[in-house]
Specification:
Layout lengths: L1 H21 L26 H75 L2 E5 L16 E8 L4 E9 L5 E7 L14 E8 L9 E8 L2 E8 L13 E8 L2 E8 H5 L10 E3 L15 E8 L7 E10 L4
Antiparallel strand pairs: 1-12, 2-11, 3-8, 3-12, 4-5, 4-11, 5-6, 6-7, 8-9, 9-10
Helix pairs in contact: 1-2
């Protein structure tokens, strides 16, 4: 503050000397070069309107410099407050980082352990099969359908299935739940009834591309079909595994497609599009109350090409609510 006052006094003296020179006044004995010399004393009062204007100008400059000095001090105080807050925040962030480094691995391990435990309990009521896909490029034969997995599931109970596949091209993927053939018969792919089917049609010869079809089939005819438009086509990438997860509850099915990191941590995406389908009641001349076993079947649209690889099939019963 003292430095500001001295500077102001010096500036006032310079202005006074300049003004005196400009108006032809001698200035040696009439000026005092100190911070109090700007006030006229006794007979040394400066006459004339011009001199009074110069004096008013110097007073205004001195007042403005004083206000600036006060504001500068206020700015310094605010800066000190902000600097202290920044220091406090930096300390808090550093503390949170230390806590995160210790806590997050524990939390992650606990979450994954709980998921694996829940998964194991689910699989105790079902089955998980891993496959090594045939290499069509090396001439290994590719079967049709790609995989057939008999299960002990029936059409009268609630359950879930998961199919993990990979496409080597933009190939169509089909998944069916078909009824177990009667004893002594083989599965008739073209004519046997389909309890539930879902086709991911990347390219469709008889409709729009990038559609998902949910359907059933009785007596060789498709009884009902629901088409999911291309606007809800999942972001499937060629060469990347994805999972089609299907859950049956009462008389309806719900299906979602899981990709990327969500596939490996076994979590559903935050806001998945749920494909829903309720099959038509099965018509039969036999006792309709009798449950019938289901087979899980996976196929590709272009048979024996190996454009679709099946890596994992999972099924398990759901606990009753």
């Amino acid at each position: 503050m003292r430095g500001v006052v001295l500077t102001a006094g010096f500036l006032l003296a310079v202005v006074t000397l300049t003004a005196a020179k400009a108006f032809g006044r001698p200035y040696g004995k009439h000026l005092r070069l100190s911070h109090q010399a700007d006030l006229p004393q006794g007979d040394d009062r400066i006459p004339g309107s011009v001199e009074r204007q110069v004096y008013s100008l110097m007073e205004a400059m001195k007042e403005s410099l004083g206000e600036l000095s006060n504001k500068r001090n206020s700015w310094y105080d605010r800066y000190d407050v902000l600097a202290q807050k920044a220091t406090n925040h930096s300390a808090m962030i550093a503390e949170l980082l230390v806590i995160s480094r210790v806590a997050m691995p524990i939390i992650w391990t606990t979450v994954m352990a709980n998921q694996l435990l829940s998964r194991r309990k689910q699989l105790e009521k079902g089955e998980e099969i891993f496959y090594v896909p045939p290499n069509a490029a090396l001439g290994e034969p590719v079967p049709h359908p790609l995989r057939i997995l008999p299960t002990t599931l029936t059409d009268k109970e609630d359950f879930s299935i998961e199919v993990i596949v990979k496409t080597n091209e933009e190939a169509n993927v089909g998944i069916r739940l078909m009824f177990e053939p009667e004893e002594g018969r083989d599965l008739d792919w073209d004519n046997d009834d389909i309890f539930f089917g879902i086709d991911l049609r990347w390219h469709n010869d008889h409709g729009n591309d990038r559609e998902i079809s949910l359907h059933d089939r009785y007596d060789g005819d498709f009884a009902r079909e629901v088409i999911t438009p291309a606007s809800h086509w999942p972001n499937i990438n060629v060469g990347e595994k994805f999972c089609v997860s299907i859950a049956k509850k009462k008389n309806c099915f719900s299906a979602i497609v899981i990709m990327g990191k969500d596939l490996y941590v076994q979590e559903q995406p935050e806001e998945p599009f749920v494909h829903t389908f309720c099959p038509k009641p099965r018509r039969t001349s036999k006792m309709i109350a009798d449950p019938k076993k289901l087979w899980l079947v996976v196929h590709e649209n272009r048979q024996h090409t190996g454009q679709v690889e099946v890596h994992n099939l999972i099924w398990y019963r759901n606990d009753k609510a």
